[in-house]
Amino acid sequence: MIMTLIEFKKSLNNPTPPSVSTLLQALWYDAKGDWKKAHAIAQDANTKDGFWIHAYLHRKEGDQFNAQYWYDRANRSMPEVSLEEEWNSITEELISA
After folding, report:
1. 8-17 contacts: CB < 8 A, separation 24 or more?
2. Which of 44, 93, 32, 39 is nearest to 67 (CA)?
3. For residues 37 and 57, is the Cβ–Cβ distance under 8 A?
4. What is this structure's pTM?
5. Residue 63 CB: number of other CB atoms within 10 A?
6. Looking at the domain that runs over 5-9+21-96, which CATH code has it been given?
7. Which residue among 8, 29, 35, 53 sits deepest, i.e. has the most Cβ atoms within 10 Å of its Cβ?
8. CA dist 14 to 53, 60, 77, 79, 92, Å?
9. Can you tell me the distance from the alpha carbon of 63 to that of 79, in angstroms, rounded to the nearest whole number?
10. Is the torsion defined by CA of 31, 36, 37, 40 positive or negative?
11. CA–CA dist 31, 52 (Å, integer)
12. Does pLDDT of 1 surpass 70?
């Protein structure tokens, strides 16, 4: 299913995630407040995008050391933007991929 960021955000009103990639599902669960489910998905994803989501989740958790490790694995710098802005950036990039 191809969707926009706006459509993806609207899907947060639904009880289950839309038919999207596993990584987008991780972001969906995070936005729904289910950090544990999002983390379980991210930690099983051995890709740079998976590492990026994993980093974001640990940054959100407040574990900067662990977050930095995962940003390094994703070949990304820890951003200085809000968590919401980073979530939007990751989601937009994955939707566009």
Report:
1. 8/91, 8/95
2. 39
3. no
4. 0.94
5. 13
6. 1.25.40
7. 53
8. 22, 23, 33, 30, 19
9. 14
10. positive
11. 16
12. no
Mean pLDDT of 2-28: 94
Domain ranges across the chain: 5-9+21-96
Find the angle CA(73)-CA(75)-CA(77) to the nearest 5 degrees.
105
| Residue of 55, 45, 56, 1 whose CA lies nearest to 23 | 45
Q: What is the pLDDT of residues 52-64, one digit of tens each?
A: 999 999 999 999 9
Secondary structure (DSSP) of 37-54: HHHHHHHT--SHHHHHHH
State the Cα–Cα distance between residues 53 and 43, nearest whole angstrom.
9
For the chain, the 3-state helix, strand and coil shares in percent, each to the nearest 5, are 70, 0, 30
- Tokens 């999207």 belong to residue: 20
Q: Which residue has the tokens 């289950």?
A: 16
